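Hey, I'm writing a tutorial for new members on how sequence and structure tokens pair up, and I'd like a real worked example in the thread rather than a made-up one. If someone can provide the structure for the chain below, I'll link this post from the tutorial.
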Amino acid sequence: MLRMFLVLGLSFGFAVGAAAADRPNVVIFLADDLGWNDVGFHGGDQIDTPALDRLAAEGAQLDRFYSTPICSPTRAALMTGRDPMRLGVAYGVIMPWHNNGIHPDEHFMPQSFKAAGYQTAMVGKWHLGHAQQTYHPNERGFDHFYGHLHTEVGYFPPFGNQGGKDFQLNGKSISGEGYETYLLADEAVRWIEARDKERPFFLYMPFIAPHTPLDAPDDLKEKYADIEDEREPARSEQTDFTRRTRKLMLQPSARPVYAAVVDAMDQSIGRVLDALDREGLTSETLVLFFSDNGGAAYATGGADNVPLRGGKGETFEGGIRVVATLRLPGKIEAGSKMTSIMSAMDVFPTLAEAAGVPLLNERKLDGRSLWPAIAEGKPLAREELLFFASETPISGHFNLTAFDDEWKLVQEVKQGLLSADVTQHLFRISEDPNEYNNLAGAHPDVVARLAKAIHRWRHLHPNSGTRAQLVPPPGWRAPKDWSTYPVPIEDLNETPAPGMPPEFALPMLDWQHGEAGRLIYDCEPYELLGGGLCK
């Protein structure tokens, strides 16, 4: 009997290996705060982006690709195919002093690819949890992790966050000399060249670039030192205010250094693409590039999203419609453009279908596969609303949206201690993609319908999910080395903490909380007396 199981196991392993060998490799490049107008193939002429322009020329532009307005929610959506609102990370990013992450029961994309025979690696910025080992990249499907648990670690050593060093290789602190963006390229190229050539690979490369605080090698800063900040207004109250204030205070523009940072990122992407060429992998590697949110167009950010409105942190198009391309020679028409709405939640099911990888998630995905629309050039209508939110950077100031192929509602909610002011912006987005004409007054029925949908959607947020927090709790201190910070799995209880209420009381308490947020994780509320019991 044992021999029979061994034979069957070996046969199954051979079959998986053989099937995996026929599947495309996957490389995902993720920029951090890249502007819509900052790449050549969108008409930008101030910054050299030959690598990104090459991807667009050799593959498809994903012309209506949407990320969330801020960082952690996009990464959560990308990894899980699920809505960041229900995951508890829709409103704010995971800060160093937070102890939360994405629920360990959530299934991550590299776990499905790994189960299908792929070797998996992540090189770059994580930003999805760091307080316990269950949140660590090596526990979420990545065999290999080189990079940073946090954001804003700087571009040169010591790569610190809040005073603590944050640079590691598979949980062990490492030292790196040089420019961070180039170091990531070094590691990605090294890993590709050293890979097991008998199996396909899944490589996730999330850059810190071009996030603030901006810095670049001297030669690139010199290259862009004389460019003029000729950006048109963002048509965003806060963003344009910061730019005017910068000029009044005679502060230098961030645009030149931002351009240098983007150039360096493009060079690093080019080095990885060149490695694929040298290894003879170009025709059998699916390459996706996109930005985690719209460009940081405010004064210190330096990005340009024009003609789109607004930028990072906002739910106008400039904050959520991002630069995106997808290349797979022989499967995707070179120089094509996919105009169907696609979001970060759709990446997991789309890439899995493209690669023939079975989805192993147990919870229902909120994303959908766009592979037929991309590979066959068939438009795919958006039948369900797509929602995004942000409470960053101002606590109590929410930016919200719901939209489909025709209509888009943007809500700006300013919540005080005794009040809440709501500004409604309604656009017929199919005809007005740059959001010039607010039709809220002319179509109150559409506003009411979309506003109700946003309200119900916000009920999904866990009561203890992330919110805007720019500073830590008073007196909090960072570790000297972030690689030592995650609590080891063996030092944790085997199951998630139940919370304070007794189990029998949770359903009623959850219902009573209503719009204050869910107490029961992944609760899809029924409508009942204005609240909702879990389905």
